[in-house]
Design goal:
- By secondary structure, this protein is mainly alpha-helical.
- The chain has a single domain, classed as Winged helix-like DNA-binding domain superfamily/Winged helix DNA-binding domain (Arc Repressor Mutant, subunit A, Orthogonal Bundle), CATH 1.10.10.
- 53% of the residues lie in helices and 5% in strands.
- The protein has seven helices and two strands.
- A hairpin with a 5-residue loop joins β1 and β2 (62-65).
- The chain is elongated, with a radius of gyration of 17 Å.
Length: 151
Amino acid sequence: MFFSSATVYAFQALAAMPDDGTYYQAKELASGLDLPYAYLSKVLTILATKGVLVSVRGRTGGYRLASQAHLITLGDVVTALDGPTLLPSCLMGASQCDSHQAPCPIQTTCGHVLTQVDRTLRQVTIQQLQTRHELQVRKAPARPALQRWVG
């Protein structure tokens, strides 16, 4: 797929963080989402340095959304973790892959699809992910750590 594992983990963690200003520790999120703690902790740190999250050190610290969930897009998360484009270089190995002057076969064939994906990522918000996540968690068997966040 288009996304790194860091981005997929970030989507899951952000969907589990309510928009109420509460700080959540990486260990709690990792446990509740069944994700590897060390890797998720690094992902959350990057998101904090890029301004998607706010972090506070200490026993009562943790991470929270830096803005309201409806203001943070999936595109913001992808850009923070993977950079500004879905395909950072030409898949055909060309030194330059210009979609207007000299497009490669992939760009010619798939450029419009990638443009639509990028547009969608910039429209879908964390709040929309949270709503979808809440519905899925309520349908799934009870997971106590997550029920506290979404129930």
